[in-house]
Predict the structure.
Amino acid sequence: MSDLDLLTQSLARNVKHWRAVRGFTLDVLAARAGVSRGMLIQIEQARTNPSLGTVVKIGDALGISITTLLDYEQGPKVRVVPADQAVRLWHTDAGSYNLLLAGTEAPGPLELWEWRLMPGESSTSDPHPTGTAELVHVTAGELTLTVDAVEYRVPAGATASFEANTTHTYGNQGDVPMVMLMAVSVPPVQ
């Protein structure tokens, strides 16, 4: 499959996904984006390669980035952000700063949790509704995050984000307690 074919397929899949998450009909998205309903149908059926301007309009109407619309990844999306890749937006000489650990497209309610898992313990979660996103930031120990049967190691100081519409497990395979902060974004009820 060529890069262009891959982009066309990714755009089709992602426009359909985010339109469903937002609860938009084709007509609603067409009106919000200023794009014809016919063009949206062609995009969702991967029958056209729209201009960058059209992709930008659709992304803006859905409230998501172009990167998200053109994302090649299939299946559960998990992104681990190493501690040294968090973004510091400002700081002072006295030592104050803010740190953007990670972000994700979030359509609805957002929950913030603190978790502590003792060595050898784990907790499994059933799949959440489509569109649910989770962010976890490990402050102590190491999290073993399993999403759709794939293990990811998230050490202290690192952050991970993932779509939580599949079975996932938080585990501590280390010998010290694991502590993390977790934000859960749940899509609004349609």
User: Anything to note?
Assistant: The two ends are 36 Å apart (CA to CA). Helices lie at 3-22, 26-33, 37-44, 52-62, 66-69. DSSP finds five helices and eleven strands in the chain. The mean pLDDT is 85.
